Structure formats: structure tokens, C-alpha cells
Amino acid sequence: MTDVVSESKAIRLKGRSFLALVLTPELPFEDWLARLDDLAARSAGFFLRRPIVLDVQNLDVDRAQLRTMIDQLTARNVRIMGLENARASMLAPDLPPALTDGRAASDFEPPAQSASGETSQTSQPQPAYEREPSHNHFATAMPSLTVTEPVRSGQSLVFPDGDVTVVGSVASGAEIIAGGSIHIYGALRGRALAGTMGNASARIFCRKLEAELIAIDGFYKTAEDMESELRGQAVQIWLEGEAIVAETLS
Q: What's the pTM value of the predicted model, to 2 decimals?
């Protein structure tokens, strides 16, 4: 009798790089949670369906306190995928795993809720785009991405490599996330997050400011925080220290 040797198919392993929102809690934790609740209330669905890492560096808590913290975040639909800068004494099999070597990133926003309270889904196809060579004359060239049609509600465009230019408008409930600056040749009604890879010199330009949220290098403003005289105007937005500054374009 001849033995039949079956050939097993090798498991294919692939590398992937994902952007994640990093939360850095502060003590007293109850006060930090209150600020988190305020942010979520002003930007509907802020944490839904997003990969979130909890940075616990310099946080003087034990394992039981960390577990309680994660439970309270989970109750708010904030799902923690991993812990960064966690001491060995904080870790346990029932807690998220320790993560290392993450690159700095800014906050992520999910699709906004509709007036009926239902969360918008990304049902539309992603905008067509083309990558363009950089024309930056400085020492470090940065690639750019051009979006040739409007960004619709529920769509999320992420380009961590450089600048994003939208030849059109960004609808309410849509978001643009760029490692560099963001240029919008239309109305900005959704969310724009520039400098998400730690680029504090990034800027946001738009023809008509009606944004739900703007952010540069992790510092943000919601619609309620923006100066009323800038609404509906062509503006440029940049960062001075930890303050977001805006002015109209002539």
C-alpha cells in the first residue's frame, strides 16, 4: 500500500500599517472622562468603529484601576485595541495587549449621525483620486493627493503621506485626514484633520468654512468653538503653539 502524503498549504502572513486614535487619560480620571463626554457630545459618533489605543505613560494606576478605566470607556463605546507604554504590572490576559513602536497620529472621526439618530454608513464609493508629485522647493518633498469630485457624507479619505487637495466640497458627515495640509476648493462642511503625523506646520484652506470639526497636529476645534464671523468665509487655519488660529483669505 502506498502512503498518500498530503501537501499542506502555507499560511500567508502580510504586514499592514493602520492609523489609530490614541487616547492619553489623565488623573483624576473622572474629570478626564467628563471632558471626553463633552467632546463626544459635540461631535456625534466620535469614537464609533475606530481603532483606539490607550497610552498610559506616566499614569499612576494599578491593574485593577486600569481595568475599571477600560470598562468605563467600553461603556461609552470606546473600544481599546491595545495599550501603549504600559508597565508589566498593568498587563493581564483579560486586558488589551501591549503595543510598541507606534507612530504619532491625530484623532479620527467616524461618520456623523443623521437627524433621526441613525449613524451614516460609508455606502458611497470612495472619491476618485490621483497622486501627484510634490512641487515643494524645500529640502523635504511631500507627496500630494488630488480628489477630483466632492467627498460625500459618510466617506472618509485618509492620506498620511502628505497634502490633500479636494476640487469640490466636503459634505457634512465626511472627513479628510492628511499627514500634511488640506486644500478644499469648495465648502468644508465635514471634518478636516491636517498634520496627523506630527506636522505642526500643516494648514487647512477652504473656500467656505462650515466645518463640524477641524484639527491640526492633534489640536482641534468643533463648530461651537469656531469664531462666528469666520463661518461661510474663505479661510486659512494654522497652529500657533497649542492654539488653532484662523483668518479670512482676501
A: 0.58
